Amino acid sequence: MAAYAAIVSLVQILHPDQFPLHLRNPEIESIYIKVISLQPVLEKIFPITKNIRQEVIDLNGRIREAIYRAQDEIEYFIIKHTLSSQNILKEIIAEIDPLSEEAQTIASSIKKEMASSPAVVSLAKMLHRDNFPLEHLKPHVESLYEQLCVLQSCLEKICDAPVSIITVAVHDLDIRIREAASEAEETIKSFISSQDAGPTSESESSKSAFLQILHEITLTIVPMVEAAERIAGSIDGDPLAQDLLLSEDAQIISRHESRTKKKRIVGQEEDFKKLKEEIVREKSNEQREVLPIIGLPGSGKTTLARSLYEDSSITDEFEIHGWVTVTQDYQVGEIFAKLFHSLETKGQKAGEGATQTTGKNEKLQDAVYQSLLKKKYLIVVDDMWDEDVWDKVKHSFPDERNGSRIILTTRSKEIAKYAKTSDFLHEMQPLSLDHSWELLTLTVFGEGGSCPPHLKDIGWEISKNCRGLPLSLTVIGGLLSQEDMTEEYWKNIQGDTLDAAAKGDEAYLEILFLSYNHLPGRLKGCFLYMGGFPEDSEIPVTKLIRLWVAEGFLKPSPVKIVEQVANDYLEQLIDRNLLHVRNSTSNNIPKACGMHDTLRDLSVKECGNEKFFHSRRRYVQTLEQGTNTQRRISVHRNILMCMEEVHNSVKEVTFARTLLYASAHHHHPLPYCLTFDRLRVLDAFTVYFIEFPIQILKLIHLRFLSLTYNGKLPSKLSNLEKLQILIARRHPKVIFLGMSILPDEIWGLTQLRHLLFTESDLPKIPIVKNTIPMFANLQTLSNVSAASCTKEVLENMPNLTKLAMWTESPGPVDLHLDQVKKLESFKFIVLNPIPKKKVEFTPQLYFPPTLKKLRLNGCSLPWEVMTVIGKLPLLEVLKLGEIAFEGEEWWPEKREFRKLKFLLLEYLDLVWWGADHTHFPKLQRLIMRHCYELEKIPEDFEYLGNLELMELVDCSPGAVESAEQMKDKVKKDGINTKLKIQTYSSWK
Asked: Is residue 859 classed as helix, strand or coil in its secondary structure?
């Protein structure tokens, strides 16, 4: 439901720091106070149980419309400096007041308590002076009773807090308190029942035994009381307590990530075995064979295909393999381009030889055909929808009668029968009840975890209601893993899933909708936003976070910057299995994410209902009722915007705050033909403009702007005072030395948080007498010339966390990284490196101790300098490319690189690497590319306990041979069984 996102957005518009001072009046002030008061009330309407669900949905719809109306009028007021009618603000206030009262009534009706509260209350009641039966021991239980009263008070405060504050750490503590209080009560009851009413019950030995019991209970309970007090203090706004809570939560999340890092297949073992035998089986007739896998949405077709595709014992049987996903809104050229880009051989990684990724369909198809010709190949065609599409695609797969295989997944049995080339057809079956329960508990509690006894029976019924569908089980499991571990909450989910199961074949849709309904308000806007992207999109996490920040629907935190809040929300959606990670960074942080197509269908549907996003997918498209009132527009084919009919229909969406061009880069220029006065977000990165669209300069609400434009940005860009993200690139990439594509006035955009552009200088910084840094909010500065990054410039960017610099050729470079004390990621590239000529950093080479990621290219530094890098305490990623360092030998020193997880060595002249398993203790991935001189890999690297991947691409024969020997040794001796060693050599 979009009401909460709309409220947060309006609060930010009306915030005193943002709203124009000269336009403030009593009515504006009143609206601000009312919406900021309504926000926590909506947070308390959770969980939304079945008995109030429809009432809450109706109320959210009315609140959403009222807030949308208020936002429209207020933004019109900011632009025009006049109101649409004299009494409009009073009307808005009169509309919001009863809605607030209604929301408060519903919130008050939701009786919530922590899972531990009944156990704590029961124990305290038993120990109360009026109830405790052993008179001579009453004085000794008073202290514990008082502690329990404090604990219950804290639990009530925590329970009444907004859901956004309740973290994994709180749930963990809640369960421990419940178990401890229940055990304590049973122990004390047992002692009381063992005592006689006579004088012997007051013996010293009896008293001593009880005091020992009391002492042990107190030792268990008191630390929990202290933890609860700290959490309750954080809710009251104590910064120290909040920091402590965040620290505790980070530890819990870290444990959660580690236990769910490697997902295993549940219930598909026999499916896997059957398919594998069919794939690798030698037959007398070795014709190319199509192996269809059919099943309902969410039945595990893609998961099974992926597990087969990633099994090296299968892919090693083939010379080349590739994967392509076919969407409903397909374009044949895109299918061939994606497939060509995915092709991988023993000598070439996927994507490295894929130069032909654009062009006419026939050329792309021929490129795929020629790549597969005369080779034994394995291809996965995932999610085929249409027989005509298969007819177009299958001609790119040659049949050399050499045992090639095509795995095809589809929902349609008709398509499977049409495409298959033998009697083989695999149909996915629902998971058994035992496997369903196993998958649910794995999802909720992680590998090695177990369900608490009081939830087992309820949990079993929930798993049964999911009807054996893996997607339903993982989504419901994700929901349960993030919410209250109480019988009451689990019984609510049991009832909801039972109702869903009654829908028969449509049950999975009801369960997915249930997972959306049970999302906290803060996450619903983020979930809906995914509906604006095309099917099977791989969305960069940095882009998504920046879009969410610019949209303004993230509630600010007193202890985190808004990007961290966005990242937290993203992680929560991933933990709930509503998003999945499609790609990870070098240090295993999500880099790109996507959404299961069935979940995306739900998001698209709700986007329409909530007036959240309208997606223009094709030329002929039925427009839903109310399309013209949508708040955001996404264009899935850039060229559509040049068509008059599409242009006219989209122009009707007059209230749009967002315009996304969500397709691949369009190589021909497009006119910017639409003007939406209230745009906050304009993502036109994939659109090529010949002339800068001057209409953009009138968008005074704009916070996010990305585009492709080869000229200098106009000086009037400074009109966009609220701009937070600016991304400008040249295409084709052209670098003009000694000049800037940015106007001098860029320094006036003080709200900028992220500034990225094709390699360029910064304009000269103006001389001003100002104690406040000009770019105090800036966090990212990318592709800026080193000459521009003077001491004065970096002094004005104190909160910079990511910096990418370049220089044309080796020589002296002034490096003033001591001015950016929060820097976490730094990249330095020499565009035209010269062997044996190094970059001379002055005054001396220095990196901030906060640095986590470092990339150097073309610097020709001596290996002795590496000790400066090795001593960085937080460094996790180090990438050395194209003669970053020069010299035949590298001898790492002890106590260096203690936290390094990822190491890339590329195009280096290194001959001897004098390292062993005592260096790089945390290293997880080692990538070596084009190291032609290296004699061998350090021989005992297989003993690096955390190493998961060693990859060599076109390295020397000696290095490859040592890696292959290491691979055999690992396999033979069982050393580090998780280590995967891969070599790609074009010279083989």
From this structure: coil
